[in-house]
Design brief:
The chain has 89 residues and is α+β, with helices and mostly antiparallel strands. It has 2 helices and 4 strands; from the N terminus they run αββββα. The protein has a domain of 29 residues. The longest helix is centred in the N-terminal third of the chain and has 10 residues. The relative contact order is 0.12.
Length: 89
């Protein structure tokens, strides 16, 4: 597998600064969503397992195969408004 350095955040931020963008004007975001698939065989959950299509649509996004952060959180039984301090350690 070939890893392309131009796909990394560090490369991208430095690229824009080299092109003259002010460091203070650059904002890097982090997408908080999930993608899901309906597996052909639900017992096969390995990487590259065959899928027959998108996963179920979320109640708010209503888009098959796409779940917003708060939909994923609720499916995991967590309140999406609750910050987990264990993640900062």
């Amino acid at each position: 597998m070939t890893i392309m350095p131009c796909l990394f955040q560090n490369y991208t931020m430095h690229y824009w600064m080299q092109k003259g963008a002010a460091k203070s004007k650059l904002v890097m975001g982090m997408p908080l969503y999930g993608q899901s698939f309906t597996l052909t065989d639900s017992s096969m959950r390995d990487l590259n397992a065959k899928a027959q299509g998108p996963g179920e649509a979320g109640p708010y996004t209503r888009a098959g195969g796409f779940l917003a952060f708060y939909e994923v959180s609720r499916q995991l039984g967590r309140d999406p408004r609750q910050f987990d301090e264990r993640l900062t350690r």
